[in-house]
Structure formats: C-alpha cells, structure tokens
Model the fold of this input.
Amino acid sequence: MTDQDRQRLAAGSVSGRYGFFMGAGGLFAVLGLVLFILAVIGEGSVRAWHAFHVNWLYFTGLAAGSLAIVAVHKIANAKWSGVIIRFSEATVYFGVVSVIGAVLIFTLGYEAIYGQMEGQLHGMSHGKALWLSHGFMAARVIGGLVALFTVGWLLVRADVLPDMAAVKDHVQDGRRALYDQWTASHDVSPAGAARNEVRIHRLAPGYVVLYALVATIVAFDGIMALQPHWFSNLLGGWYFMGSFLGGHTLLVLLLFYGRRQLGIQDLVTPKQRHDLGKLCFGFTVFWAYLMWAQFLVIWYGNLPEETGFVFARLWGPWRPIGTVVLIGMFIIPFWGFISVAAKMSRFFLPFFATISLVSLWLERYLLVTPSVTAEAGPAFGLPELGPLLLFLGAFLLAYGVFARTFPMVSPRLAAITLAKEAGH
Done:
C-alpha cells in the first residue's frame, strides 16, 4: 500500500458528514416523540407502550449485536474486515438510548407492559415471584445494559484511539481539540501499539460473554416474563443470535451508505461483500435451526403451558405475521444469500439484507405483542408509528454523531485488509 493510499484513507476517514442520518434522524426522532406523547396521554397509551417495548428490544439487539461482531472479529484476528468494521463500531452510542429506554419501561411504562404479569405473580412460587419482582427485574436489566455498553465503549475506544492519532493532522475543524486531548497520552510507539492490542484482546472476550448473558436476561425479562407461565431455555440464544444476524445485515446497509460518504467505493471490494454475505447466509441458517429446535421440543412435549405461546402466534389472526417472519427471515434470505453473485452484488446484497432486517422487527413484534395486547389481532396505527420513528430516529442520530466525530475507517486495519487482498 502506497503512502498516497494511506493519506487518502486518513483524509477520507474523517470526511463523512452523514447528512441523511442527522437530518432524517432528527426529523424521525422529533416526530416520533410527539406522536408517542400524544398516544400516551390519549386513548392509545397502552398500545404505544407495547410498541415502545418492541422497538426497544429490536434496536437494543441491533446495537449490542453489532458490537458483538466487532468483539468476535477481534478475538478471531479477522483480517478481511478492516475497511468496514468501524461501521459496526459506530453503533456504540445507541447504548445511551437503550439504557434510557429501559429506565422508561420500568418506570412510566411498567404498568402498561407488565401489568398482566403482576396479576399472575400471586399464583407462582416464592422464588419465581421474587425473580419477576419489579425492583429485581429492573436492576438486572438496567445494570446489565450499563455494564454491556460500558465494556463495548471501552473496546471501541481502544480501537479508535490509534486511528485518531494517525489522522488528527487531517482534522482542522472543532474536533481537533478533542483529538489532541484524547491522543495526548496515547503511546504511538510499537510497544504502545502492542499494549493497546493486548487491551483490545482482553476487552473483546469480556464483551462476548457479557453479550450472551445480558441479552439472555433482556430476552427472558423483556419477552418471556410477559407471559410468565411460558418458558423456553432457548429463547435467550434465539434473541442474541437473531440480534447477531441483525448486526450483520445492518452492516451491509451501513457500509453501502458509508462508502459513499467517505469516498471509498473502490476499497469496499466484491471479496469483502462476499465474505459479509457468507456470514449473513450462515447466521440466517442458524436462526432457522434455533427456531426449529425450540419449536420441535414444544411440539413433542405438548404441554399446555408451552404450546399456548406458539399456538397463539401460528394460528388465528397472528398467523399472517408468523408466515411473513418465516418467509422474510429464512426462505427469501436463504435463497438470496446462497448465490455468490448476489453476495457480491451492489443491489441484491442490500436488498436481501433489508428484507431480513424488516422481518427481524416483525419477529420481535410477534414475540411481544400477542402476550400483552387486548386487541384481537395485529394493529398498526399512530400509537405504533410513534415509537418506531422515535427509536429509528434516535438510532440514526446516535450513529451520525459518532460518524461525524471519529474516523469511520481505520487506516491501520484497512491497510492490512487491502494488503491481504493484493496478495491474493
């Protein structure tokens, strides 16, 4: 890799303004907040809080799953993703929104979301009633998310610092003071770089372990507790691996937008798209495996406390949603991502990724809403639209703020990727 290429990477990494993310994010967030408040103070209060819960689960999973991708790549010493991995790291700021959302759920929205569960606690064993008590549940969910995103931030910060030191001469706006401050004590010597890599490789496994644990708690308390007599040991794994899949399909869309913002279209190569598409395909199959493994045990056991949860979602008015989830999460992405040409395509790769992402939202909606709603079937109106726009806008804003602050390509990691590809 030539010095000219390195200079281009350094300059391009801090050139993205992410105007769409900031503009659309601000618009969606404000409009969503207004619609949400109007619904909460009106007749759609309960439905609005149910939708808030669905979107909190969905976007929290996407952010946490994206950071899990970063951690796994660090553990595996992945070389192919150096150009694009920062697009996943930039989701870390949403952790603040996720924690605030959890606080709101366990305060203002608790009665609307968990009111039915509270009415069933009296018939449970003391241990289960204690586990599902308001204070204990809130403490472990909020505390777990704070711990998870704190470790995620420390991991991202350790990975970003060397790049801030490398590109700060290309930053001449208000960020320069921040870059100078953060890199003042950063050791750029080979020994300092080695110590930083050791720190990264200590934080990454810690994040992966926390991700599995905290995401399982979120799934159990955010989904299973809504129908407390139903239980599935696989639900935690299904939630965090579904979020991991969502992180990969989200990365597809983020890299296609980000490469234009940074002017690196030629550096996001067909090989990188192919490798990312293979991971999307693999975890799509794994999602289907977990779904089938969960369904098969419930079907064979045929216990009323287990089958009711599944029956309500696969028959009657909720069946169309369940059918769309199966088609959109597995059948279409399976046959789309299985093609080498589609995985390399600038059109079909984001197309199938979008279908998978939308279907994942419907899956979260299907897991939550039938357990809590008083409606006879699916309903989507202004009470549901408000929280969706609010969380989507907050996600875009959080991502845009990170992207306008930090280098969105790591010159040192990109150099490794491009050198490997040149060698092949």
